[in-house]
Each structure stands twice: as structure tokens, then as C-alpha cells.
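Appendix C. Worked example: Transcriptional regulator, HxlR family
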Amino acid sequence: MMDPSRTHKKVPVAELDRSACLGPDGAVAQVARCLKMISGRWKLPILFRLYADGMQRSSLLLRDIPDVSQKMLTQHLRELEDDGLVRRTDFGEKPPRVEYRLTDRGEALMPVLLAARQFSEEHDRAV
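Step 2, the predicted output written as C-alpha cells:
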């Protein structure tokens, strides 16, 4: 039996309610949009490093994330910035000094990612 406090989030099953799940603004589309934001080999490591340390320069990210190239790090940081998950601060100095941190939107995503981690840990043993 479903927890009564969760019934407001229940996925609709009636024929007329399918658009709430499968429509262009439905649950499936929203989750797919979220997954697209974090898809890419290096995006999760970037997000977790920024969550753990608050702020990072690209050189530190490059050092802390094994096997990532400068090109891929820059590309994924730009994509995360475009999606509003990461903020880039350029201090306009010579030599260049640029820092990255999570935005409020990025911070709001982290409990979801931590819940996914917990789900994986708990269900890894069941497989």
C-alpha cells in the first residue's frame, strides 16, 4: 500500500491523466530533462567536487578528477553553466583566474544525486 503522504505525487494512470506523465511537460519529460543536464562522463564528478569543496579553479578540478582532459573539463563546465547548475567567476586578472561553484539550482540538485547514490548502494547488494 502506498504511503498516504505520497499520494499527491502518484503517477496518474487513468486514460485522461496520461498527459500529466507522458505529455511534453509531464513527469517523463521533466526527469529526462534533468538526466540530460547531468549526462556526460565528467559532469557528476564535477558536481560532486564542487559540492564537497564549495569553489574550485579548473586546475584543481583537472587535478582531482583522474583522466579528464582540459578540453572535456572545459566543455562540461560550459554545459553545466549553460544549464544553470554551475557559476563561473572570471576575475579578469593576468594570469587568468577563474573559479567555479554550484549555483542555487546546482545545490538543489545535490540531494537528488545523493538519494540516487543511496539507492544504488542499497540496491547493489540485491542484484
